[in-house]
Amino acid sequence: MDFFSKYSLCDTPIDQHNVSKLQSDSEQNAMVSCLSDTERQMLKQRIKELLLSCLEFTVPPLSYKPCEEGWRAYRGKCYTFSSNMQSWFESRDSCAASQAHLVIIESAVEQAFLLSKNIETYWIGLSDLETEGHWIWVNNQTLSETGVEFWFRRGNQKSEPDNWNVDDASGENCASVSWEALNAWFDNSCTVKKKYICEKKYSFPYLDDNESN
Question: Which domains, ranges and CATH numbers included, belong to the chain?
Answer without folding.
Answer: 3-58 (no CATH), 72-201 (3.10.100.10)
